[in-house]
Design goal:
Strand 3 and strand 4 form a beta hairpin. Helices cover 32% and strands 26% of the residues. It is of the alpha+beta class and 339 residues long. The protein has an eight-stranded antiparallel barrel. A two-stranded antiparallel sheet has the order 1-6.
Amino acid sequence: MPLDEIDRGLIHALHIDGRAPFSRIAEVLGVSTQTVARRYRRLSAEAGLRVVGLADPHRAGRAQWLVRLTATPHSAQDLARALARRSDTSWVKLASGGTEIIAVVHTPTGGADGRSLLLHDIPRTAGITAVSAHYLLHTYLGGPTAWRGRANVLDPRQRRQLAPPARENAAPSPSPSPSLSPATGATPTDDDRALLSALQRDGRAGQAELAAATGWSPATVARRLAALRASGALFFDVECDDTLFGATTQALLWMTVAPARLEQVATALARHEELAFVAATTGRTNVVAHALCPDPAALHHYLTHRLGGQRAIHALETAPVLRTVKAAGPLNLSPSRAS
């Protein structure tokens, strides 16, 4: 399905504020609220558009591992789907001709609890011939930062109109339970688990639905949500089919960079419009990036010209991405919101 300026503007607006009311988006785009709601429903049904609420992993005490699995051709797709169904995974991709699975695995920071996927489940899974795990040390591009290919429609004035309230305007939330005091306002706790789970399924869930999921009052939900967002502990991501933006060729790039130049190189890569994700990792390669290009020729040009100019990159491995089995949110999609 082709995207017009209204579609692109709507998606850009959701990247700025995933919970912006359709009425405010409509005012910024210069169309009716009904038009925005209708476009959102169509894009959700036909382009996989979804807003998901995600806790900042560091604030939530979570570590992220980028896991690469090499599997036999007949088992790779089943393994990818099995990984995608787990609650502790995101961004599950089939790559390298369909024999490699790449996934982000989330584990608690410190201690061995919750690491069964890394330490027990994966090594014992039939069909896997090789495993490597790379700890994500620092993200330079990604998370709350949208890929520029989706966020290039609205002008600075429109962006300011859609920007969420500044963090200093958010008041600390009252205590929904004895263990959640105002002093903890900026950091997710166990009491926020139901709220975060509901937002991960549908970042545009209404206050009444979130109140039902948490057992809190709508007013408490609103204040807690505002506190988590304002502190940066909660952000919203937008899932959508990137081929509709012309990105028909995708690849994960594994780079070895001189340690003394890593910060400089990664910061420079984060400004490249071809990249949607850049991070520093552990392992033989210490920088990973996700490239989205119009076609193989454009990817080749990017690798040989833009990356080729980075002399501190000593080695580069390119893994073409065939399909994204799971993005940031869980697989169980909720009905589209029209409000």
